[in-house]
Amino acid sequence: NSTNVQVKVNPFKHTCQESTLRKDTISRAKSRWVAEEVNKWVKENQQVGPKELQKNIKDKFKIDLPYMRLFNGKQHAMDSIY
User: Fold this and answer.
1) In angstroms, rounded to a whole number, what is the distance separating the alpha carbons of residues 50 and 24?
2) Exposed, middle or buried, 18 (CB in 10 Å: 0-12/13-18/19+)?
3) Under 8 Å CB-to-CB from 34, ≥6 apart: which residues?
């Protein structure tokens, strides 16, 4: 019993408006994911703030995340450490 997979490619250009596309933000990067990523930085420096974490995430992953998502992610990281 074999399974066939068919891959289709859309040859047409997007017609979406530029303003409706999310270029540099990722909504799936939830605060729990942020906590996993910033855990090492928080262990090294518990005083690190969300702004610095925001810069580090942007440098490492090339994405912009909201301040509050980083704040909450740091809180989750702190909870997992202690």
Assistant:
1) 18
2) exposed
3) 53, 57, 65, 69, 70, 72, 73, 74, 76, 77
Q: Say whether 64 sits in a helix, a strand or coil.
A: strand
Report CA torsion sign: 28, 33, 37, 42.
positive
Q: Which two tokens stand for residue 54?
A: 């925001």
pTM, entire model:
0.66
* Closest C-alpha to 30, from 64, 2, 1, 72: 72
pLDDT tens track for 5-43: 888 888 888 776 655 445 555 677 889 999 999 999 999
Supply 77's token pair: 């990281």
